[in-house]
Amino acid sequence: MKIGIAGLGAIGLHVAQELDRGGIPGCELGGISARNADRAAEANATLSKPAPVYSLSELADHCDIVIETLPPQLFMDLAVPTIEAGKELIVLSASQLMGQQALLDRAAETGAKILIPSGAILGLDAIKGAAVGNLKSVVIETRKPVPGLAKAPYVIDNNIDLSNLTEPKLVLGGAVTDVAKVFPANVNVAVAVSLAGFGTDKTRMEVWADPSLEKNQHTVRVVSDSSDFTMTIQNRPTEENPATGKITALSVIAMLRQKTSVLQVGT
What we know:
The longest helix is centred in the C-terminal third of the chain and has 15 residues. The chain is α/β, with parallel strands linked by helices. The model has no long low-confidence stretch (mean pLDDT 95). 41% of the residues are buried. The chain is built from 11 helices and 10 strands. The two termini are 22 Å apart.
């Protein structure tokens, strides 16, 4: 399978390098798309075999699977042509699927598939299993170090004082649908949890400022008729981008490896 990668930040470049070294059996790097020619050249300089460079609209014409690791404003520039080509689209910007039922409907018509890897969150398999039964509540709690929240537009616009905190402070809470509108940062993980369960309207998200933390922490709490469970993850950041967890690229690689594996573990 030929894999295309749109976006060559910490996630996209890591996956490209893994493909380049043959670390994903049955897959090869079929093409890349970067924000400009210089960035594409920089990325290709790290590979043993430079990959063809295509525009976002061309990538699906040359690849079987396209991986999206783009700024939100570019999502549809890649998603639409990939769906029209009937290819598989691996989405990291899960929040951009909110309100895009027309895109999902078109994928059903063209035979395309939209895949969301686990990324920076955990337990999606468990939530999917519980959702086959009766989910009663799903809450995702995101706790961030105070410096990571102090300059957030929502905090500034609402004059929320985070200085001199001695204990965690709830900055914002509500349905994922509502939180995403005013606090887009870190919503991708909440949307992934929502789509695995019972949607963004019923899934609750809480954003906390926590002076005891040095890394972002996500906790998911689920109550259902089959099981109740709580899961917590703290992600270590990449060296290239402190806002990106190392595990995100690794989860994409794991998803690609599963494509050709004779043994598949998990739902």
